[in-house]
Specification:
Elements (H helix, E strand, L loop, with lengths): L2 H10 L4 E4 L2 E4 L19 E4 L7 E4 L5 E3 H8 L7 H12 L1 H4 L1 H12 L6 H7 L4 H5 L4 H6 L3 E3 L4 E7 L5 E8 L2 H6 L2 E4 L18 E5 L2 H13 L6 E5 L7 H10 L2 E4 L11 H6 L7 H12 L1 E4 L9 H7 L3 H5 L2 E2 L11
Parallel strand pairs: 10-11, 10-12, 12-13
Antiparallel strand pairs: 1-2, 2-3, 3-4, 4-5, 6-7, 7-8, 8-9, 13-14
Helix pairs in contact: 1-3, 2-3, 10-14, 11-13
This protein binds zinc ion.
Length: about 350
């Protein structure tokens, strides 16, 4: 649990505490009711451990209480009037670990399961530059730089996907006609698990992460940032679809502290941040939960579209989108950080 959240809970239950290293020493609030020698605990017998991303463990040397901060507050609520919101605040952090505490697990999973694809498998698609991509206004340099290829058999533009170590981990084939796109917009080569990766991560240099939906958007925006010499400040990646996955969100949180959402300009994936702030986490959809996780854990911005522009690719084709990226508005800065008042 985050330190500031622990402080909120301790303040809310009226506990006195001091911080030493990664622990709070607290005058145990259970002293009047359970197992302490005196009715008040002046010795700060209760130890509260600060471990971000993990449930908050507490232990009392007086009453021998041992468990999570949530259980502690729950126990206290048997004796004192504890506001439901405070319980929720303490509890949320126990369940919150699924988004925050996954870093380590994901890292483990990735090193264990990152299946590296032999380079020769992609070569057959990338030997010729695809005419279709050229017609969309991409230069030969863009295509070479991003190794964009074409799959004659499937009639799809092929985008190789690499991890940050430059290893080939998969590829996706994008439909080139509307009819194909309606059926299946993306084809995953070699059973590529795209929800675990961010397209463009291997080219990232900047500490601010611009997140677009499609690969064309990614290449286009990257080109614009390059022209404006901004690639040391901004990285651009595509989620290869319209729903960001938990693993992708985790990567963004781990890799940087600022995320700039640059999704397509349609209703899919748009969040009403004001109402989201009112919603308890257990009522959120998975998508809302992930977005809220991003908002809490990063500086989150959103690019605002001008009238009539549909996506970053379309926008970047005719004008410079870097100004819009630089001017991206902060999301929910005036909203309460923890959804509790
Ligand atoms: Zn105690």
């Amino acid at each position: 649990m985050e330190e500031r959240r622990i402080i909120q809970v301790l303040d809310a239950i009226g506990a006195e505490y001091k911080k030493v290293g990664q622990r709070f020493f607290v005058n145990c609030k259970l002293a009047p009711y359970e197992g302490h020698a005196t009715k008040t605990d002046e010795n700060a017998s209760l130890v509260v451990h600060i471990q971000e991303g993990k449930p908050c463990g507490v232990h009392c040397f007086g009453c021998k209480f041992s468990g999570t901060l949530y259980k502690y507050v729950k126990k206290l609520s048997e004796y004192e009037d504890i506001n439901k919101n405070i319980l929720e605040l303490a509890k949320e952090n126990v369940t919150q670990q699924s988004i925050v505490g996954m870093d380590l697990e994901i890292e483990k999973k990735e090193s264990a399961v990152d299946v590296i694809i032999p380079e020769k498998k992609i070569k057959r698609y990338t030997e010729k530059l695809p005419i279709y991509v050229k017609r969309r206004g991409f230069t030969d340099e863009d295509m070479i730089e991003w190794e964009i290829g074409f799959d004659e058999g499937r009639q799809r533009v092929v985008f190789p996907v690499r991890n940050r170590a430059m290893q080939l981990v998969g590829a996706i084939g994008r439909a080139i006609t509307r009819r194909m796109a309606a059926q299946r917009k993306y084809y995953n080569y070699w059973r590529f698990a795209k929800s675990r990766y961010l397209y463009g991560a291997h080219k990232s240099n900047g500490f601010k992460w611009v997140v677009v939906e499609g690969c064309f958007d990614c290449v286009r925006v990257w080109g614009q940032l390059k022209q404006c010499d901004l690639l040391n400040e901004y990285s651009v990646v595509a989620i290869m679809g319209s729903d960001i996955s938990e693993e992708q969100a985790e990567k963004l949180i781990t890799w940087g502290n600022e995320v700039i959402l640059f999704q397509d300009n349609d209703d899919a994936g748009k969040i009403d941040w004001d109402s989201l702030a009112e919603k308890p986490t257990y009522k959120m959809t998975k998508f809302e939960y992930i977005m809220e996780g991003l908002r809490r854990r990063t500086i989150l911005r959103e690019v605002k579209y001008p009238e009539g522009v549909g996506d970053p690719d379309e926008w970047g084709k005719c004008s410079d989108v870097t100004r819009a990226i630089k001017g991206a508005e902060l999301v929910g800065m005036d909203l309460p950080k923890f959804g509790v008042r």
